[in-house]
Specification:
By secondary structure, the protein is an alpha/beta fold. Helix content is 41%, strand content 14%. A 6-stranded mixed β-sheet has the order 3-1-2-4-5-6, sandwiched between helices.
């Protein structure tokens, strides 16, 4: 994973929001948010916007199962109020699929774009289900639905994140809100 950040926002005292609005949206204040890939592009902008609502802490983590488990335990210990996970870290590599090649870039994309969010969600889900207003946000891509031939592995990894999000949303219905952000195809 890239640079995650925990963001604290002020408490939300707006009790006039209807229940229907809460079903389809994420509470934007009063959260402690963990953002992967918070050091660049979409993640940096999300961190900046949430930071405008409070303050941010930043740390670094690696994308291996043991590293994620250890890092997640540290995050929960330092920020027990954590209630939002934004799985945003991702990498995209252009590739020529028409001939044999070194699969290092393909494997890195699958590890970061698919296994990273699965591992991190798994490491934090028991904690999130105990928090008020818990949310998991997964960032997919328009390329999950309209792939580019020169970014096949990236599109496949983001299509898998879309499918994973749908499954997770169904299994966590009533416990944790699942949101998918689908930036437009590049």
């Amino acid at each position: 994973m890239s640079t995650p950040g925990a963001v604290h926002g002020p408490e939300n005292h707006n009790s006039s929001a209807s229940q229907a609005e809460r079903v389809d949206t994420m509470q934007l204040t009063g959260n402690t948010i963990f953002i992967t890939g918070g050091g660049s592009r979409i993640g940096r902008e999300l961190a900046r916007r949430f930071n405008d609502l409070g303050s941010a802490d930043r740390s670094r983590a690696q994308n291996g199962p043991a590293a994620i488990s250890t890092f997640s335990q540290q995050v929960v210990k330092q920020h027990p109020e954590l209630n939002v996970l934004i799985n945003n870290a991702g990498i995209m590599r252009y590739e020529d699929l028409s001939k044999a090649r070194d699969l290092h870039d393909a494997e890195a994309q699958i590890t970061t774009n698919l296994l990273g969010p699965i591992r991190l969600t798994n490491a934090l889900i028991n904690h999130l289900t105990t928090r008020a207003n818990p949310v998991v946000v997964n960032v997919s891509s328009g390329l999950a639905f309209v792939p580019r031939s020169d970014a096949g592995t990236y599109g496949a990894s983001k299509a898998a994140i879309h499918s994973y999000t749908l499954s997770l949303r169904e299994q966590l219905k009533g416990q944790v809100k699942l949101i998918e952000i689908t930036p437009p195809a590049a």
